[in-house]
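Structure (tokenized):
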């Protein structure tokens, strides 16, 4: 106190408060996720993750629209030709469902990667956007497949309180949804807020691409005509291609190919299907073309890749 007035926090105090909140959140995640893995939580769309090894290979997956927060360690996510790296105290937004290649780049058994993932509900974001941007969104100069920004103390504190809610079933049911809204509002007000807001706008470029992606994910085995996809979202072919590339870092045909390869891999792993049958089911006509595309995408031909993953699964068992 100075002359009866509170002393405003200095930058040093702010940094120490942020560090303390990060330490607390890391402790909470370590308690709830004592072993490596991504664990779904009782709050819808909430996942906690722990990884204690640097990945030698990329982990390929289809990532839904989501917010990732790195609490400890670092990761890199590749989408098309773009690479997004984020670490301690940073958040990463994926605005549409994307085929990604993720890699843990900084981790050890003593200091594992610890993180939080929250799936983003376009309808809920749309409701909150009306409050955060009552006069509409400011102009968006450039879009990309992902966005990285530093999380501030208010975001980390809210995430910590959300994880704390998991310890009490009553808080999980009644308080957690309110804290999720708080997190979304704070992200909407952050430097990447306008890009997050686009997820909830029905006529935004992001939502138009998301609509086309939804069709592709349900019909990936069918032959795709870009003109038909453009008509679906009421855009010219040139505008559709431009929007799609800016939001996903790949063309519509490249996106469809990624979906087909992911599904073929899933069929071979989970249904014990051979490569020839799997490639036909996902829409490939040529087995040799499928093998070439698979090798370029996943780094190994189908037989070698599937054998490796089955061996790793057996070792974990």
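Design, position by position:
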């Amino acid at each position: 106190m100075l002359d009866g007035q509170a002393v405003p926090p200095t930058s040093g105090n702010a940094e120490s408060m942020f560090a303390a909140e990060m330490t607390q959140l890391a402790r909470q995640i370590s308690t709830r996720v004592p072993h490596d893995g991504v664990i779904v939580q009782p709050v819808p769309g909430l996942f906690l993750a722990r990884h204690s090894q640097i990945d030698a290979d990329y982990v390929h997956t289809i990532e839904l629209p989501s917010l990732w927060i790195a609490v400890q360690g670092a990761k890199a996510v590749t989408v098309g030709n773009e690479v997004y790296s984020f670490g301690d105290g940073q958040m990463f937004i994926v605005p549409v469902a994307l085929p990604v290649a993720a890699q843990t780049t900084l981790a050890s058994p003593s200091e594992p990667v610890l993180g939080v993932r929250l799936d983003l509900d376009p309808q809920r974001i749309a409701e909150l956007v009306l409050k955060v941007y009552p006069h509409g969104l400011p102009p968006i100069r450039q879009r990309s497949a992902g966005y990285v920004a530093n999380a501030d103390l208010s975001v980390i504190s809210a995430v910590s309180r959300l994880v704390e809610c998991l310890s009490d079933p009553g808080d999980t049911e009644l308080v957690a949804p309110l804290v999720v809204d708080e997190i979304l509002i704070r992200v909407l007000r952050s430097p990447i807020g306008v890009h997050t807001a686009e997820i909830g706008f029905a006529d935004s470029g992001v939502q138009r691409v998301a609509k086309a992606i939804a069709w592709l994910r349900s019909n990936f085995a069918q032959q795709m005509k870009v003109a038909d996809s453009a008509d679906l979202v009421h855009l010219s072919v040139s505008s559709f291609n431009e929007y799609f590339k800016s939001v996903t870092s790949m063309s519509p045909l490249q996106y469809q190919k990624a979906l087909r390869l992911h599904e073929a891999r899933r069929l071979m792993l989970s249904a014990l299907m051979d490569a020839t049958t799997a490639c036909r089911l996902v829409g490939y006509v040529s087995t040799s073309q499928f093998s070439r595309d698979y090798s370029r995408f996943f780094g190994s031909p189908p037989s070698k890749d599937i054998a490796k993953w089955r061996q790793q699964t057996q070792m974990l068992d």
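Reviewer-requested clarification: The longest helix spans residues 11-32. Confidence is low (pLDDT under 50) at residues 1-8.
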